[in-house]
Amino acid sequence: MPEVKVLAVRELTAYLQRLLANDGRLANVWVKGEISNLRSPTSGHLYFSLKDQAATLRCVMFQGRSRGLSLGLRDGLEVIARGQVAIYPRDGVYQLYVAEIFPAGTGLASLALQELTARLEREGLFAADRKRPLPLLPRRVGLVTSPTGAALRDMITISRRRFPGIELILAPARVQGEVAPRQLALALELLAKRGGVDVIIIGRGGGSAEDLSAFNTELVARAIYACPVPVIAAVGHETDLTLADRVADRRAPTPSAAAEMAVPVRAELEQRLKSLAERARRGMEHRLELARARLERLTKSSGLDRPRQELYYRQQYVDGLEQRLLASWERRSREREQGLNLLAARLEAASPLAILARGYAVCRRPGGGAPLKSSREVLPGEKVEVILKEGLLRCQVEEVGG
């Protein structure tokens, strides 16, 4: 008679535990059912069962998971739960350790987005303490959006009106469709590697929830998080926050509002500089006046040991110091104002938009990409796009020369 191996209860239970733990399908499973036998002891843990017409599954949701639960659970409520299946050794039963729970009417796409949002939040991608401030006066503003959409025109118009001559750099990308997430992430990476870009606006001009799906992808969210340059998200949707909105350093309701956040008004900066100069001048005058008054009191003091003539000399010294300080401050104010005007002139001269305004044009392949620099880059019959100061021409090459 062959030898029979007899297992202890704990050995069999441990074996079954290993089987379940090694089954990847049971590590993250979605289960739909009706809640029954709901219990909520003082520990904060939730104990209940999910059942359908044929079976019942015991469930546990620990206090750390249930604390922020907005859904009011009750017996008879049909839900979808996500969690891990494992054995509870003491009772020898398998149960679902619930991580998240949603109403049964929630779609799978919505469930997946909620799960992704929760995971990225746990990783710290939305943390407020990592948000970076926007630069006061950016030299270059990067734009990640469609090259043919209204969002681009709005941002260019607003930026030029607020600070004429500021340099805008477009990294074109599709904003919806299957290739959109990849192109958006790549455009962010290219602008960051280019160097000299002080702030980036990524977005589009609104749309339905499906149209905005590219901005709810993990690829785009992580690209924004990894970008070393401050990012403004301008997805153009007032009610729902996308993952891009949550990760970005600032969120704007529209592309136009994003341009207003990124680009200061030149006249306001000049006025602010003048106000600071005036405040500093008044402060110095006040301090000098106090020093003069103190000297006058000393000259009138009967118990003064020093000769009166020396006090007169010191008063003259203070008067001369006042004149030199005021002259120095006025000179520094003029130098700062000249520096600001010079910077603005350089920005305007270097702007591609200023070059286009002088009658030049930029030729490129359809769909974006780098400008064409030589006629040898195209062949007769190929199509190209010609970007003008206002508008875009789509042309076909008939002959190549030079």
From TrEMBL:
<keyword id="KW-0175">Coiled coil</keyword>
<dbReference type="GO" id="GO:0008855">
    <property type="term" value="F:exodeoxyribonuclease VII activity"/>
</dbReference>
<keyword id="KW-0378">Hydrolase</keyword>
<comment type="function">
    <text>Bidirectionally degrades single-stranded DNA into large acid-insoluble oligonucleotides, which are then degraded further into small acid-soluble oligonucleotides.</text>
</comment>
<dbReference type="InterPro" id="IPR003753">
    <property type="entry name" value="Exonuc_VII_L"/>
</dbReference>
<dbReference type="Pfam" id="PF02601">
    <property type="entry name" value="Exonuc_VII_L"/>
</dbReference>
<keyword id="KW-0269">Exonuclease</keyword>
<comment type="subunit">
    <text>Heterooligomer composed of large and small subunits.</text>
</comment>
<dbReference type="GO" id="GO:0009318">
    <property type="term" value="C:exodeoxyribonuclease VII complex"/>
</dbReference>
<dbReference type="GO" id="GO:0005737">
    <property type="term" value="C:cytoplasm"/>
</dbReference>
<keyword id="KW-0963">Cytoplasm</keyword>
<feature type="domain" description="Exonuclease VII large subunit C-terminal">
    <location>
        <begin position="125"/>
        <end position="347"/>
    </location>
</feature>
<protein>
    <recommendedName>
        <fullName>Exodeoxyribonuclease 7 large subunit</fullName>
        <ecNumber>3.1.11.6</ecNumber>
    </recommendedName>
</protein>
<dbReference type="InterPro" id="IPR025824">
    <property type="entry name" value="OB-fold_nuc-bd_dom"/>
</dbReference>
<dbReference type="InterPro" id="IPR020579">
    <property type="entry name" value="Exonuc_VII_lsu_C"/>
</dbReference>
<keyword id="KW-0540">Nuclease</keyword>
<dbReference type="Pfam" id="PF13742">
    <property type="entry name" value="tRNA_anti_2"/>
</dbReference>
<dbReference type="GO" id="GO:0003676">
    <property type="term" value="F:nucleic acid binding"/>
</dbReference>
<dbReference type="GO" id="GO:0006308">
    <property type="term" value="P:DNA catabolic process"/>
</dbReference>
<feature type="coiled-coil region">
    <location>
        <begin position="266"/>
        <end position="301"/>
    </location>
</feature>
<comment type="similarity">
    <text>Belongs to the XseA family.</text>
</comment>
<feature type="domain" description="OB-fold nucleic acid binding">
    <location>
        <begin position="8"/>
        <end position="101"/>
    </location>
</feature>
